[in-house]
Amino acid sequence: MTHVCLDDLERAARAVLPGEIWDFLAGGSGAEASLGANRAALERIFVIPRMLRELGGTVEAELFGRRAALPMAVAPVAYQRLFHPEGELAAARAARDAGVPYTICTLSSVPLEEIAAVGGRPWFQLYWLRDEKRSLDLVRRAEDAGCEAIVFTVDVPWMGRRLRDLRNGFALPDSVTAANFDAGDAAHRRTSGHSAVADHTAREFAPATWASVEAVRAHTELPVVLKGILAVEDATRAVDAGVGGIVVSNHGGRQLDGAVPGIEMLGEIAATLSGWDGELLLDGGIRGGGDILKAIALGASGVLVGRPVMWGLAEGGEDGARRLLDLLTVEFRNALGLAGCDSVSAARRLGTRVSHPG
């Protein structure tokens, strides 16, 4: 079957994944209000295109001083061997070939060094662990492995209540493990009405603080990016703390149910941080090249894309993930040109309007 949009790949992935694994990937927390709101908020935003412009430029962008083929990176997603036997290795190869950064997750099911060895532009996503030394050891391992940035997720002091996983009594199969540290068997222990993955993270994770951010910054020469920022006040404090990037995100609707969609805060944060030379990224709900254009127009340097890449991985392994990234490239090039822009920087000067229901 020919896939002509990301929705096609979503349907194909859902058809091949077992129900509880699909729920683990697709679900949000609570009543999934924030999960749905991410898409609804993006769909309410409209771009004001410009006409009679010279076109035919590039869709490339610069992220942390290096070229990316698109203004995007693959978002961190845990346990990718749930979706395909090659897991993170296949997804990282697809990102390498597409010319976009790939973010290795603390909870990857392949050791971070093996993923980084694929090449391309690896970033490393950090969860703050109860043992600070283990957290900082992961940072050092990522830097030694050639990662280019530390994406510090700050919105998971513990895992949100994901009702699909609770109803399914979700646990990892024996063949899928947290490969970057010895996590015991907590994530594999199936109990009715419990998520073994949530039980595992409750045991391993600790709430991060601004002192945690300073500890990470002091431990690495790499840019530190805070993922999970929504409040303008937190964004300004992050800049004052010397971070190299911010990801505006409600964790894909998987943490606080009722948290505002990132796209609704992006413009205000971008305006407040005007003149800052760090990277401002958006995460959550991106489902096509037109969504990337909207994020750029509202002030983002680029976006993170997570679930859709996993759809491609599930549907066809490395080739499926590559097809997904190729499709995003085609869609973004089309959207950029139809908006009258010959570059990503030109898209930052586009106007937008929000359509209010009723």
UniProtKB/TrEMBL annotation:
**Which keywords does this Swiss-Prot/TrEMBL entry list?**
Flavoprotein, FMN, Oxidoreductase
Q: Name one Pfam family in it.
A: FMN_dh
Q: Does the keyword Lipid metabolism apply?
A: no
Give the EC class as a word. Answer: oxidoreductase
Q: Which cofactor is recorded for it?
A: FMN
**GO molecular function terms listed in the Swiss-Prot or TrEMBL record:** oxidoreductase activity
The question of whether Oxidoreductase is a record keyword is answered with yes
EC number from the UniProt entry = 1.-.-.-
Residue stretches making up the FMN hydroxy acid dehydrogenase domain: 1-357
Family under the similarity heading: Belongs to the FMN-dependent alpha-hydroxy acid dehydrogenase family.
| Name under which the protein is recorded | Alpha-hydroxy acid oxidase
What organism does this protein naturally occur in? Amycolatopsis speibonae
